[in-house]
Amino acid sequence: MAEDRRVLTGEHFMSGDHACAEGGLAAGCSFFAGYPITPSTEIAERMSERLPEVGGMFIQMEDELGSMNAILGAAWGGWKSMTCTSGPGFSLMMENLGLGIVLETPTVLVNIQRGGPSTGLPTLPGQADMMQARWGSHGDYEIIALAPNSPQEIFDLTVRAFNLAEEFRTPVLVMSDECVGHMTEKVVIPPKDELEITPRRYTKKKPGEYLPFDFGEDEIPEMVTAGDGYRIHITGLTHDRRGYPVINAEAQDWMVRHLINKILKNKHRIIQLEEINLSDAEVVLVSYGISSRVAHRAMDLAREDGIKAGMLRLITVWPFCDEKIRELAERVKAFVTVEMNMGQVALEVERCACGKAGTYLVPHAGGEVHNPDDIYQVIKEAAK
Amino acid sequence: MAGTTSSRKEVRFTGFGGQGMVVMGYILGRAATVYDGNNATMTQSYGPEARGGASSTQVIVSPEKIFYPYVIECDILVGMSQEGYEKHRHNIKPDGILLIDEDLVVTAPDEKTKRIYKIPATRFAEELGRKIVANIVMLGFFSAFADFVSEESLRKAVRDSVPKGTIDLNLKAFDKGRAYAEQIREGSALSSQG
Description:
The complex is a heterodimer of chains A (384) and B (194). Helices cover 38% and strands 20% of the residues of chain A. Chain A has 384 residues and is α/β, with parallel strands linked by helices. The longest helix of chain A has 18 residues, at 151-168. Chain A is globular and about 65 Å long. Chain B is α/β, with parallel strands linked by helices and 194 residues long. The model of chain B has no long low-confidence stretch (mean pLDDT 92). Chain B has six helices and six strands. Chain B is globular and about 40 Å long.
């Protein structure tokens, strides 16, 4: 009965933050631990109302370190779990995000980005945590990060984040921004039986045969729930297939390569892009999140003036779409990256374009979206 | 220009925090999406204060997909505070409409907008017994000028969006504003109240 309230099927006029919470619920999230911080608080607030309705659990933690650890523990306890944060809270979650990666724990972390560094602009947008999402925890690893550009898409991508987390047994980031989080638009939530939900990949092996960090060709280990009778040992130390610490270069090489291969070998299953007007494009805008909607307007302005502009919208930002940029670089004049930071994803575009096409950046320090005319001026320059 | 085509309508509600500017935007957006089947994007800006600071809500309504989510030039500006009116009055389309609470906003001597309509929304709300429904009086008034959203959808969205137990009062407030708009339009034909 409580489960009837889990998927709010229907048409709503809903904020991005609330749609994110509903996406989590629809995907099967039953555990949320978090610490309120603007502009992500409405996600936590909604979860605190909604989770008890569906038999789930909400905990307001003492801080973001505890929040991140609690959702890892909940995942090993058999729950689908998530947290949300912003600004300094994202920094505080970095250490234990790394623990989640090393423990190969399925969970979802949502960052509603605001202006930084430090306390920065609590109520105003930014997209300057994109490289932190990629590299923010110490050590080498690969991460999955999705960037929605509307309340509908934050619903859809939160569901997808949960699915990817289960599919690849790893934490997944939803990297949104204050504009999308606080924007209200039509959100269509499908009937429960039309939602594609990836179940946890529980092992079919018997206790005694199962190893928590063993995997086959696809590099993805199977999961168990702590307390189900399997002997498991999990540690943040470099470990072997059993999960036991092994402190040497050989074990390190095996584990780190595995964490990276798990994502890179499966890139084709993870990367999602939207291609707009690319068939004849000479100038390709590369953008994501709210900036992609502003860039879309600049693209329309350019098209009206006869400039063949198109856009590659990154729905998955990490892992990066190297191949797509390389392919486009062979046939387009230039890339123009539009992001609300001083140049982060732009570095990746430049790396992959490898000098074969021009690369331009329209930077913005945050606090408000770009002026579409500023983007248009750079498109004109790039088209010359 | 793209984004300013006639099918795209841009509205800004501006007033003080506590007057219900965000609620007005929410009701318009809900009416336009859930009941009329169009698209709508609502964004808001406000100061850190819960009440008394400047509050402004923007709503874009379009049958097409909305990309740029903010007002470029208002089709309708609703002013319920002097500060809000003054801040946004230069951002109205040449044929745009300005709606104001006549007891709270005095138009500037050099106001260029031709289509200005005034209503004592707050006074009407007080007459109905609750000053807090001034925003809904204004929304009823607004409904007579906003041909891109149906009156019936707005009434349904009012029902959905106000606290239970206040639905009748709010619908009365809506009707009061709507009736006043119709009276004005009959009285002054197509000319502005000035």
